[in-house]
Amino acid sequence: MRLSVDRLHITLDRHPVLDGVDIEARPGDLVGLVGPNGSGKSTLLRAVYRSIRPADGGVTVGGDDIWELSARAAARRTAAVLQDGNDTSGSLTVTETVALGRAPHHGLLGRDGARDERAVRDAVDLCGVRHLAHRDYASLSGGERQRVLLARALAQEARLLVLDELTNHLDIRARFELLRLIRATGTTTLAVLHDLDLAARFCDHLVVLDHGTVVAGGPVLDVLTPALLAEVFGVAASARRHADGVVRLTYAADPLTAGPRAMH
Ligand SMILES: Nc1ncnc2c1ncn2[C@@H]1O[C@H](COP(=O)(O)OP(=O)(O)OP(=O)(O)O)[C@@H](O)[C@H]1O
Q1: Which CATH class is domain 3-258?
Q2: Where in the numbering of this chain does the ABC transporter domain appear (predicted)?
Q3: Distances (CA, A) of 24 to 1, 33, 210, 224
Q4: Smallest Cα–Cα separation from 205: which of 213, 193, 217?
């Protein structure tokens, strides 16, 4: 499902956080959202997930302005794993937590038990958490929780995924596994990634945010130039496609020779 973010302005506590952001993701694209700490990535995801209303500009998913859809209809289109966990509280089991993803599909006519069960079962299996199904969510490790939250988002059967640092708590193999899984679902995805190597390897396009504006966007190698890596991230590095087809970053012996980036 296509995502369009159009001239988005967000102000939080009178502090302008996003200043005219435009983003396009075509159906099936995995778009990496990268940028230094505080550049506005999480705020942008919240706006796409309809949890912050913009001061100006808009977000359309599948051609519809998300604020013209009901909250339930918007949630059937977009599923999120956000940094504060859009976390479950209380003592739910893993299966119950994943089943929360079905809530947007429960209308006045009640539940479709068989379809719900299938969606939950499939998501639990895809995310490799079957062995945890009866555990309390609250008892899980950080990485296990990330997998369960992704399973909940997949059980939602939304056609747009927004992921905020999904790979944060994951060990290196799990990072590869989950990004490969997300690619394999073919779901349009906007993912905040701090790890530029993972972003370069898995994403179709990158969008770079800095100080609340998009400073670059497009195919990975067009975006991750040495000049941008120095100017925006403050590191001396370059990106290159290797013979195996994978784009990798190489950092200078002392990556900090690029000099400190300008602070706010
Ligand atoms: N409620 C708020 N009031 C004022 N400023 C805020 C508020 N929430 C966030 N900000 C500021 O907005 C800016 C962008 O924050 P955001 O969390 O979107 O950045 P980020 O790129 O996701 O950062 P990080 O990589 O560190 O997670 C930061 O300077 C932050 O301090």
Answers
A1: alpha beta
A2: 3-236
A3: 11, 12, 17, 18
A4: 217
Instruction: Find the length of the chain.
Output: 264
Ligand 1 atom, smallest distance to 35 CA: 21
- In this prediction the ipTM stands at 0.97
Residue bearing the CA closest to ligand 1, atom 26: 37
| H/E stretch holding 169 | none
Ligand 1 neighbour 262 (Cβ under 6 A): no
Mutation probe of ligand 1 site: the residue of 10, 11, 41 with most atoms within 8 A of C-beta: 41
Contact (Cβ atoms closer than 8 angstroms) between residue 61 and residue 3: yes
CA dihedral 26→29→34→40, nearest 10 degrees, is 50
Which two tokens mark 46?
A: 């919240």
Determine whether the shortest distance from the Cβ of 43 to ligand 1 is under 6 A: yes
User: What are the pLDDT digits (tens) for 125-183?
Assistant: 999 999 999 999 999 998 899 999 999 999 999 999 999 998 888 899 999 999 999 99
User: Taking the model in full, what pTM does it have?
Assistant: 0.93
